[in-house]
Amino acid sequence: YGDYDQRIDYMFKVVVIGDSAVGKSQILSRFAKNEFSLDSKSTIGVEFQTRTIAIDNKTIKTQIWDTAGQERYRAVTSAYYRGALGAMLVYDITKRQSFDHVARWLEELRGHADNNIVIMLIGNKCDLRDMRAVPEEDAKEFAQREGLFFFETSALEAINVETAFITALTEIYRIVS
Ligand code: GDP
Ligand code: MG
């Protein structure tokens, strides 16, 4: 974790999008710092976090951008998407509406981002098993139809967050290398 002084072979920009309160900021902080903050305030002012990883003996610095509350006003601008090689599109498995909005986010993404952007669909809060409102199968089918990668995650319990990011970053690496 953290950044260390080393030659950087690649720099990947990844954006995190999805409805408000689905857990985007917590997913980001889980991946970047292995932290989950119980007192999750809005992240106004924080633009991105970084984590440096190694794939195939290459040092890859990832810059992961957070919408920082803009999603509430549908004010995510094209500057946010510019240069992004990957997108984590997050919904909350306990909030049907956040899954229904995924198609809209996808449309926005495809309108603004690069054509070959790697998209990872993420059903977050999978720790809240008893409150599930979106069957995993529905999301799987949607992802398959739209050509997206898909994982259910829990930022709280650190389930699949690492795997989802590493899968997306490995695919980006495969495309750019
Ligand atoms: P954002 O608006 O999409 O950035 O969402 P936040 O990251 O601020 O999280 C919104 C709320 O969901 C906060 O109360 C978090 O503590 C909670 N939350 C985020 N991820 C999880 C998770 O994996 N499991 C559970 N149970 N709660 C989560
Ligand atoms: Mg947030």
What small-molecule ligands were found?
guanosine-5'-diphosphate, magnesium ion
What is the H/E string?
EHEEHEHHEHEH
Largest sheet composition: 6 strands, mixed
What general form does the structure show? globular
Overall pLDDT score: 90
Structural class: alpha/beta
Q: Helix proportion of residues, in percent?
A: 25-40%
Q: How are the strands of the biggest sheet laid out side by side?
A: 2-3-1-4-5-6
Our estimate of the beta-strand percent is 15-25%
Oligomerization state: single chain
First and last CA, distance: 23 Å
How many beta-strand runs? 6
* Radius of gyration using CA atoms only: 15 Å
Uncertain segments are none
Task: Describe this structure as you would to a colleague.
The chain is α/β, with parallel strands linked by helices and 177 residues long. It is built from 6 helices and 6 strands, in the order E-H-E-E-H-E-H-H-E-H-E-H. A 6-stranded mixed β-sheet has the order 2-3-1-4-5-6, sandwiched between helices. Strand 2 and strand 3 form a beta hairpin. It is globular, with a radius of gyration of 15 Å. 37% of the residues are buried. The model has no long low-confidence stretch (mean pLDDT 90). Magnesium ion (MG) is lined by residues 24-25, 42-43, 66.
